[in-house]
User: What shape does this take?
Amino acid sequence: MQVPLLDLKAQYRALREPILEAIDQTLASGAWVLGPKVAEFEKQIAAKVSANHGIGVASGTDALLLSIKSLQCKPGDEVIAPAFTFFATAGAIVNAGCKPVFVDIEQDSFNMNPSALDAAITDRTIAAIPVHLFGQSANMDPILDICKNKNIPVIEDAAQSIGGTYKNQKVGSMGETACFSFYPTKNLGGAGDGGMITTNNSELDERIRVLRVHGAKPKYYSRVVGFNSRLDPVQAAMLQVKLEHLDGWAAERQKNARAYDEAFASIDGIESPKHVVEGEHVYNQYTIRVERGSRDDLQSHLKEMNIGNEIYYPYPLHLLPAFADLGHKEGDLPVSEHSAKVALSLPIFAEMNEDQQAYVIETVRNWAAKQ
Assistant: This one.
């Protein structure tokens, strides 16, 4: 049996006809840059996450970059982010001209530790970026309280968690802005890059819309140096079709997660992801901790058995060569460093059938029994 980490072909086969029809209609319209299709999709995403505004951009990375730039940052400004996340979170901070300040995560959630955030704030801090990693919201109440008390904007990195909730609030509605990715591997994925910024702040909405078109308003009259970062209408058309199925796919992922949780509960050394905050976890990834035996050995065994898997993430950001100038050393952020050594993501895509999941479970169980 073969079990991919994600089966995009199966998802496309199920929606091929409506996707092709939507793309054909968009191409026939001749509106191929921004236009009504993108504007319509922006409103749909804003409504989906209970935000007032949605701004389509070229990628989730650009969503982060433009969000930071919209705060009118200047050299020397600091932005706080967790060290255990995808590179784009920190790369956007640097490319916006700011200094990343890395903080540790909570072991049970893989998300930003609010106490570490509080300790890292200085008079140069202009923003904090909690990441809702793997589909579970960060612990937002203390994060928002800390930042509100010190007048620091919060940018939600919601790239992996569209459709998720924190208590009774939608992920993407709580910060000054929130950033979504439509990269193909996301729960709502396009046929390439794409992103969205949501906000309840009308001033930031206007500022970001200007930034995404070279800083120009009116056309050709650039008040600031902006970017060329626009969501393509063809991507918007495809994503509109998929959006109708997002909640159903999340329910299937949650069902698969429950089956894994039950199966792994009795396996010594395999720790299932913990659902540690109140709200909907949408499981962009199902990430276990291999605390007995070698994570890398389990990964190799899964590959031998034709089971897709991935290490998210093998290196904590503060120890990457790209950030060597910050002067971090091993041991500075121990939970992030340990997580990078033990985390392993297993298939959880909505189209996975029971036989495939049973095969994954059996393979992990057999490996663990030999440790």
User: Anything to note?
Assistant: The chain has a mean pLDDT of 97.
